[in-house]
Each structure stands twice: as C-alpha cells, then as structure tokens.
C-alpha cells in the first residue's frame, strides 16, 4: 500500500508564515519602515522566506492594503448626505472622517510618502482623498467661498498635526475640528 503525502501541514505553515509577515509589515509600515531587512527580523523569518511570499514591495503593499481594508468600516455617505440639520451633519461627518483618520494614522503617512513609488499606495491615497472631498462636499454650504478652507481642515495632515503637534487625543482632535468647522460654516451661512 502506497502512503500518500499530506501537504496540508506545509500549506498551513506557509499560510501562517505569510500572515505573520503581513502583520509584521503593517506594524512596521505604520512606523514608516518599508525595508525588507527589518521586516524579516520582525516577522522572525529569513529574507529568502520573505521574498518567496512577497517578491517585491508592490506585492507586499497590495497585500497589506487588502488586509487592512478588510478591517476598515467606511462611512455611509448616503446616510451622511441625508442628515437634515447642518450642525448634526457637521458633527457626524467629522466624527466619521476622524474615525478613518485615526484608523489610517500610520498607513496614510506612509502612503503619502511612498505614493510616487507605488501604484497601490497612490490609488489608496486617491481614494482616501476622495473620501475627504466627499465629506467636505456634504458639509460645505452651496456657493461657499470657504470650501477650500473646509477641505483643508478635513485633510488627514490637519488631523495628524492636531494629534501629534497639538498633542490632542483622538476625541479632542475630533471635537476641535467640529467646533472650528461649525464656526466657519455658521459665519459663511450668515454672510450669504
């Protein structure tokens, strides 16, 4: 009787190694580290194993992006557009965008710096900027001369500066943005 080779253990081990590499990569990418040497150390694998699973950075970025996207719950723009009260709309929109800013805190920074070298990260940043554009469009009064200011305040760099330079908690940074945007929009509405 011929004994058949069971490859399931090898496949399972390879899947676990790949997952360990992805988790290590996301941890390091959030810190701005993209080199393979530190990644192999963090994942506790050889460079050969790392390159076997991810032959180049673009492949790694694609897989990290996909893995991260699976954990992210995007705002419901239709719901946000349907909020009738302007003050409630600003509050909900800013809360939802800041939730995404916080979730993407390190990833957005890396993506912004590496987007010129990576089609994957460029696409990710374009989508992220599109979300901020959409939310700015929801809360900006029609015909407002302040649309650029409002969009700038909603940018991830503004949020990052508030969190790091301003040493604000996520909750406080969100509240500061809500209050600032409310005052700009209120003045804009009253002068129109």
Write the layout of secondary structure elements.
Layout: H1 8-29, H2 36-43, H3 47-53, H4 57-69, H5 77-81, H6 86-103, H7 105-114, H8 119-139, H9 147-153, H10 156-164, H11 170-191
Helix pairs in contact: 1-2, 1-4, 4-8, 6-7, 6-8, 6-11, 7-8
Keywords:
74% helix, single chain, Arc Repressor Mutant, subunit A, mainly alpha, 192 residues
State the end-to-end CA separation. Answer: 88 Å
Compute the number of helices.
11
Q: What structural class do the secondary elements suggest?
A: mainly alpha
Taken from the alpha-carbon principal axes, the silhouette is elongated
User: Beta-sheet strand percentage?
Assistant: under 5%
What kind of sheet is the major sheet?
none
Q: For the residues shown, what is the average pLDDT? A: 90
Low-confidence stretches: none
Q: How helical, in percent, are the residues? A: over 70%
H and E string? HHHHHHHHHHH
- Write down the domain tally: 2
Radius of gyration: 21 Å
Number of strands: 0
Mind explaining what this structure looks like?
- There is one protein chain.
- The chain has 192 residues and is an all-alpha fold.
- The protein folds into 2 domains: 8-55, Arc Repressor Mutant, subunit A; 77-191, no CATH class.
- The chain is built from 11 helices and no strands.
- The longest helix is centred in the N-terminal third of the chain and has 22 residues, at 8-29.
- It is elongated and about 85 Å long.
